[in-house]
Amino acid sequence: MSIFGSSHFGLPRLKPLNSKRSHIVSVLDIGSTKVVCMIGRLTPRPESEILPGRTHSIEIIGLGHQRSRGVKNGVVVDLDAAESVVRLAVDAAERMAGLTIDSLIVNVSAGRLQSDIYTGTIDLGGQEVEAADLRKVLTAAGQRSLRQDRAILHSLPTGYSLDGERGIRDPLSMYGDVLGVDMHVLTAERTALKNLELCVNRAHLSVEGMVATPYASGLSALVDDEVELGCACIDMGGGTTAISVFAEGKLVHADAVALGGHHVTTDIARGLSTRIEDAERLKVVHGSALPNASDESDIVAVPPIGEDDRDQPTHVPRALLSRIVRARIEETLELIRDRIQRSGFSPIVGKRIVLTGGASQLTGLPEAARRILARNVRVGRPLGVSGLPAAAKGAAFSTAVGLMIYPQVAELEAHSTQGGMLASLAGGNGRIARMGQWLKESF
């Protein structure tokens, strides 16, 4: 079945959900630490001051999550293991929701995400800007972003210009000689996306759409003022840390680094010579990203690696554990700081940073981030969804909830260009071309 073929719950078009209808949406967050499947009921909601961009309210009716296997730093490294975990997570969500699903919206952390801004211009000859002109200028910008080895995940017009006047949000019906557009295009390596899709297909499911992890996390963890005024969302997962920058209501930049909470765990396991699961427990219970006066006097018991029950745990000062944790956290935060600086979006981010993702729950992390990033930092949890069990309300579930929100903002993307862009990307066949065909027919 084409991944955009029709399915029984009426969402396959990822159309702007501005209808008066309810939808069932299913999503899959494939991470290095856990795999989460969520099934949600989206019900039309009235315009509201709270989260005004949302057209529907979201109620989670099914949730399944499993410890991840076969995924390293966001990349599928063992198809069999990853497939079995996907099956288990989907199965649990289906049982809870009391329905079966056949397609999902999936997140992408792998494939060396790359953000670029492309500019396109067309001549208007002093005429009024019409819808056809907008399509033309988006296509002109889109054509410049075509690459053989990379696939386009998102293409978002960030702003239009008329006769050199920038910052125009909607030029429709305005007059001018030259219409320009700046388009933020987010791409990923095609092979990484193929392996991700293969993993889902092997579990007898189809991929309905792919959303970059940084985009999804930002959608769920940021409030409107942040999205409007400019803010960075940093999603610290197990194997990757994703960075997204939002301004004027749109995603303007995204990036990901292959460092996450699991790297802290392996550092502890190596440094204190203990098993990975014991290292994880030590990190959660005793680990801190901040030095503490009592660390030298506090003693932590470290279970040995050996199988022999008679082996006694070793005792180390908590200061040693904290030093190991701090070294890796500081390295990660410094890398993020440099990435934001290099991206050129540092002024747009201003003083606002939101931390989310499972690894953001480490003790003392917000304070460490404030110091290293020299900005205001808060920990963001998924906003505006009901029906989540208490265990799933934390920052670790931001990406999955963001995937659930995504269909409501899908119309921001430059769909009219994607028919051409995506069809040429896949040489007229395969998933991307079908998606192009679907976009042509749908819009």
UniProtKB/TrEMBL annotation:
It comes from the Bacteria. Keywords: Cell cycle, Cell division, Cell membrane, Membrane. It is a peripheral membrane protein. It is found in: Cell membrane. The lineage of its organism: Bacteria, Pseudomonadati, Pseudomonadota, Alphaproteobacteria, Hyphomicrobiales. This is Cell division protein FtsA. SUPFAM superfamilies: Actin-like ATPase domain. It comes from Mycoplana azooxidifex. Its main location: membrane. Cell division protein that is involved in the assembly of the Z ring. May serve as a membrane anchor for the Z ring. InterPro entries: ATPase_NBD, Cell_div_FtsA, FtsA/MreB, SHS2_FtsA. Signal peptide: none annotated. Self-interacts. Interacts with FtsZ.
